[in-house]
Amino acid sequence: MHHADEAGARSRDSEQRRALDAVFDYVDRNAQDFVSCLMAYASHPSISAQNIGIDEVAHLLKERFLAMGMTAEILPTKGNPVVLAQWNRQAGAPTVLLYGHYDVQPPEPLEAWTTPPFEPTIRDGRIFARGIGDNKGQHFAQILAIESHLKVHGKLPCNVIFMLDGEEEVGSPNLPSFVLEHRERLKADLVVTADGSVHPSGTPIVQFGVRGLLNFELHVHGAKRDVHSGNYGGVVPNPAWTLVHLLATMKNAAGEITIDGVYDRVDPPSARELEAIAALPVNVAGLCEELGMTQLDQPQERGYFERLMFHPTLTINGLHSGYGGPGMKTIIPDSAFVKCDMRLVESQTPDEVFALVVKHVARHAPSVEVVRLNSMEPSKTSIESPYTQNIVTAIERAQGKRPLLYPVVGGSLPDYVFTKTLGLPAFLIPYANSDQANHAPNENLSIDCFLKGIKTGAALLACLFDRDVVGSST
Amino acid sequence: MHHADEAGARSRDSEQRRALDAVFDYVDRNAQDFVSCLMAYASHPSISAQNIGIDEVAHLLKERFLAMGMTAEILPTKGNPVVLAQWNRQAGAPTVLLYGHYDVQPPEPLEAWTTPPFEPTIRDGRIFARGIGDNKGQHFAQILAIESHLKVHGKLPCNVIFMLDGEEEVGSPNLPSFVLEHRERLKADLVVTADGSVHPSGTPIVQFGVRGLLNFELHVHGAKRDVHSGNYGGVVPNPAWTLVHLLATMKNAAGEITIDGVYDRVDPPSARELEAIAALPVNVAGLCEELGMTQLDQPQERGYFERLMFHPTLTINGLHSGYGGPGMKTIIPDSAFVKCDMRLVESQTPDEVFALVVKHVARHAPSVEVVRLNSMEPSKTSIESPYTQNIVTAIERAQGKRPLLYPVVGGSLPDYVFTKTLGLPAFLIPYANSDQANHAPNENLSIDCFLKGIKTGAALLACLFDRDVVGSST
């Protein structure tokens, strides 16, 4: 970089910092009002599983976006509508697509709540309410970040599309078709989702990928009915044994999945990914103690994060055959079944892996029935994305802390609709405290996390597309 | 054999036939009265599982034995008493120990009975009542056989001990200790039990052995609680997989038990046993159709009766871990367990085999807990016993049909108390029709089977110790 360029960059950088500090000041001045607004928002139930309050909350959101000066629409799906808001008055500027969900989990069991789930209450610096952490408090922080920018500067540093899902808590069944149908309107440069929790230490995190998912069942049918294990033992085939022997061909005791071809599309971690996970804190001894285990799963030599990020799994979720009550019942059961899930890593697809499962079962136990259940593609954005440094910088400016970078997390989310369907880099940047108790009674969001979330949202708008930050990311 | 001996034998034989025919005539003349007596006996409930009517029926039996001129006692056990009757006035003659049980199964579900279970009713040549086949009608036939002999001849051809168990339907928990305690009083030359069913074709059968039984459970403990299969998949060990891999080391897909040493004490069938089972009818295609199977269990080349008689089994009775409801639940279960039974063949003992199981589990999966449940020794009397021909002759004389000889049956009964504890040859000679519906509603005994039972009982008393029959058995 030439000296003149450097001087220009420094000048632009300090100008941007001043502009962002003005937004931070605005957030600090309005903190109390923002908390009140969030509590008002969270007082409206929007329970997708119980079909309660969905339309009302979608309209509240639309009104808020319109009042902020954004365009906003309630777009139908086969299920609950998507709220889509937009601000695109920065001609020629890049666009960030923000994703969140306005539906919440059912609040039951109600008697376990200290205060009612839809009467948001502050205790010990936290707001308690259903959906406050997952996800109302997090996308509302992003909304307030936009609002603060507009109030302070009259415009945004980039264009914004805000997409709020009304069915995330029931598995976003209509999100893939919605994104496909509206892909022209959703054209953007990257996707940012504020969901999940920061590290238990309070350190912010950025997640770049998720594992995919494939659920299936194997059903083995034996005799028409349970038969006497003495009168028929050795004569009538036992479906439980058939299932045991089939399963033993699918994964070995050393922890390797032994379905032919399943590792063909599993890539080793990159040098940059290994470097990132080496920096991640983990307390294996503490986890073992918490869960009452003496050691991790096989193979023993595999690193903690390698297990979760770069290896597919084949998990038995449930295995059932015959008698399970007290004492003995001397039968040969009439049937056996197993419920499995596989977590898939980038490059694997549920369709391809399911085909391998079907082929494997056909070769080893052709009479066994294979039933496919839910599935989800894996998703991964390169940790070497040019946006990575901008995101790190934005978080540092908002929170004064360098975030931990997770190349992948072990669970599954439909991020593939962004990375694979829309072809965009996608980043998950959680704002909530790690003990938010989402999906559980007494769900809560710390006010500190909420305000940091607003500032982080504001800093992301300011920094995401800052070429000077991009220039310094190498 | 010399000519003079032959002539003597022929003469003794025709004398014995005449004496037996006189008993048969008596049975025919008193058939209607015998049926009435049986119906009166079966009208008294004696349900061990529900502790109903046990003492009353024990006293009825004692009174009957005393009225016949036998000694009779009600001997206590830790549970229900044993009724022990004796006739030993044939000085120097051998003794047969007859075994049966006076307790019956619970009658429930009552609404499934056409007529009440304790109001014996005749329909279509059958008596319907709880316990009529299992076992009241069968041991009562033996009692009437003794009574008929005594009425016609004033004495019995041999000495008799009659032992009636009051807890067979709850597993005869006190029979082993009772037999051990009273072994001096139970001194006999052989044991005959009338229980079970004749062949569906109506052909009588003699059973020489039963398989033993060993029940155990394996418990695998994982994390303290179910954990998320995404967040922990690859990290937390899965007890269901541990159990699958352990079980796969215990029996292979070819049908062989692979616990070290388990076949060490398994003897191949003798030539005489193979000859006997070659004569036994079996309809494998019919069984497969009835049970909805395409083929028998592995290995395919093993003969039907070899499977049931000469091979131990390792049967999964129940296998359970994790979620079993509809849809999916993406967890790593916190535990897994299996309930197994092993059927043991002669020379194997539950203690030795259980020790092999424990050793195997300790070697392959030391963290897995092994829990022993019930067990029972196998029992086998040689089909080449000198009594075999006498029994065949007795049955032929009573029923005009040659019985089928079963060296072993697949199920388990406590016959070992006779063969191993008392060291006696023991024979199971069922009298009931094969569709007796024992343990089920509408239990029944055909009057024809009952009367044949009385005559068979009488013929056994006459023939069992007949040296001329013994002489012709080679």
From TrEMBL, chains A, B:
<keyword id="KW-0378">Hydrolase</keyword>
<dbReference type="GO" id="GO:0046872">
    <property type="term" value="F:metal ion binding"/>
</dbReference>
<dbReference type="InterPro" id="IPR002933">
    <property type="entry name" value="Peptidase_M20"/>
</dbReference>
<dbReference type="InterPro" id="IPR051458">
    <property type="entry name" value="Cyt/Met_Dipeptidase"/>
</dbReference>
<feature type="domain" description="Peptidase M20 dimerisation">
    <location>
        <begin position="209"/>
        <end position="367"/>
    </location>
</feature>
<dbReference type="Pfam" id="PF01546">
    <property type="entry name" value="Peptidase_M20"/>
</dbReference>
<protein>
    <submittedName>
        <fullName>Acetylornithine deacetylase/Succinyl-diaminopimelate desuccinylase</fullName>
    </submittedName>
</protein>
<dbReference type="InterPro" id="IPR011650">
    <property type="entry name" value="Peptidase_M20_dimer"/>
</dbReference>
<keyword id="KW-0479">Metal-binding</keyword>
<dbReference type="Pfam" id="PF07687">
    <property type="entry name" value="M20_dimer"/>
</dbReference>
<dbReference type="GO" id="GO:0008233">
    <property type="term" value="F:peptidase activity"/>
</dbReference>
<dbReference type="GO" id="GO:0006508">
    <property type="term" value="P:proteolysis"/>
</dbReference>
<keyword id="KW-0645">Protease</keyword>
